[in-house]
Amino acid sequence: MYKVAIIGDGYTAVELLRLISGHDQMQVEYVLSLENIGREFAHIYPQLLGYSDIVCSPSDINILKGNCDAAFLALPHGQSVPIAKQLLEWGIKCVDLGADFRLKDVKVYEEYYHIEHQAQDLLARAVYGIPELYRDQILKTDLVANPGCYPTGAIVPLAPLLEAGLIKTDYIIIDSKSGVTGAGRELRASSHFCEVHNGIRAYGIGTHRHGPEIAQELGFCAGMEVGMRFTPHLVPMSRGILSTIYVNLNRGIRGENVRDCLREKYQDEPFVKILPDGFMPDTNWVKGSNNVHIGFQIDEHRGNMVLVSALDNLTKGASGQAIQNMNLILGIEETKGLKMPGLHP
């Protein structure tokens, strides 16, 4: 039984505890908190009553030394760097659910996150945590940069098509819509019920922090810089992300080429589902699961395609993928604690 800690107590933390409650090789020893010290975690999130009796501890990482094998860092950007640096020195493996180790170019990180990076030497050590693309590297590391939720929904369907050279790289349009939990549990006017209910809006156009993360990974897949436009939207639902992606096909590419490419890449992947013809993803089908659903429609006459992906932003978009990564770096079977279908209706 591997002993793990969760540093943070927000939505990703409770999703971690929910999933680990069904894991027979991983046990949460500590939840470190600033605001809920001394409170039972299940009293903050009553859905965990009967599944967890853990009490929130002060945010003092010294209590983890010698007492944990690994830690999930469920913290805002900028806060993971000093903690990860210290934990790694103690031999504690880390999966960071924040943004501090996702971008390889420190100048881009500092431009978008407006904070100086305090451990640039760790950027090369960190592996970007999409197991379907980087499994071999994840198995060998002790620091995983868990991807953002929007990037996962965009990168997973596009990666094999770019690697195979099936689509043009000059102009890819990614239109993504997310549930409100993507904004976190912290109170803010933009996520109040009255601000979100019965409406939908685009935000962060051209400035969203997940944009350079998507561009970085798509560039790695294509082997060149990719022309990309990413626009996120906030929709009045609790959880889920639907991404609609518009691309142009390279000359001579047909529907069967795209389907064969996606199937070949993901046929042995337990959490990526290429939907049958006539089906398009629905966030309801993946809710609460670690699955990504992918569908597409091709206009061969005009040489373009619409790709659609759906995932749960708190599972495959955050905590589920973090556990998938943690399973790998601890040598546990990758799907442990994660093999469940979505919740619908």
Defining key terms:
7-stranded parallel beta sheet; 14 strands; globular
Q: What does this entry look like structurally?
A:
There is one protein chain. This protein is an alpha/beta fold. 31% of the residues lie in helices and 21% in strands. The protein has helices at 11-20, 41-44, 80-89, 106-113, 131-140, 149-163, 193-196, 210-222, 255-266, 283-286, 315-330; strands spanning 2-7, 26-33, 56-58, 70-73, 93-96, 127-128, 143-145, 172-178, 201-202, 228-234, 241-248, 272-274, 292-299, 304-311. The strands form two sheets. Strands 3-2-1-4-5-7-6 form a seven-stranded parallel beta sheet, with helices on both faces. Strands 9-10-8-11-14-13-12 form a seven-stranded mixed beta sheet. α5 links the parallel β6 (127-128) and β7. The longest helix has 16 residues, at 315-330. It is globular. The protein starts with a strand and ends in a 15-residue tail after the last helix.
